[in-house]
Amino acid sequence: MSTTTTALPAGLTSGTWAVDASHSEASFSVRHAGIAKVRGTVAITEGTILVGEDLTVTSVTAALDATTIDTRDANRDGHLKSADFFDVENHPTWTFASTTITADGEDYAIEGDLTIHGVTRPVTLKTEFGGTATDPFGNARAGYSASTEISRKDFGLTWNAALETGGVLVGDTVKIAIEISAIKQA
């Protein structure tokens, strides 16, 4: 039986930790034509993890640049950036701000508000703490892996096309995976 705790993970110290965008990634996958998954990435441009004395006073914020959506297909990327989907001209930034962080055994649940396409909805990031290390430049680093699933319709992303064989071109469930490397600030 696991127990809930508010203690920080072993090795994580209080302070401000900045997300290292060059060593972090947000990726997504969605069912295409009902038979395969399309995968893509979007750049994390900034993020801050404010670690308090315990989880009750710890918070996470992040911003992602929707104009960097990359599915390795320029035509599809252009369509995703258009008003049919993310409308990046009017909504170029996605954000996340935690509301609570809880632990249960080895895993963590980071609940917060995710804003995509100008629509904010609560989500829970199932999170694994990867530990801490000192890099060759003397920086204290912490690593995290997180995931969640969202309904794209909940964010006003309703464009679709009917398939001749039944069903629709773009699935509703979007799986999101996040890899974070954060550096402790002086």
From TrEMBL:
Residues 16-183 form the Lipid/polyisoprenoid-binding YceI-like domain. It comes from the Bacteria. Pfam families: YceI. Gene3D superfamilies: Lipid/polyisoprenoid-binding, YceI-like. InterPro entries: Lipid/polyisoprenoid-bd_YceI, TTHA0802/YceI-like_sf. SMART domains: YceI (SM00867). Belongs to the UPF0312 family. This is YceI family protein. It comes from Actinotalea soli. The lineage of its organism: Bacteria, Bacillati, Actinomycetota, Actinomycetes, Micrococcales.
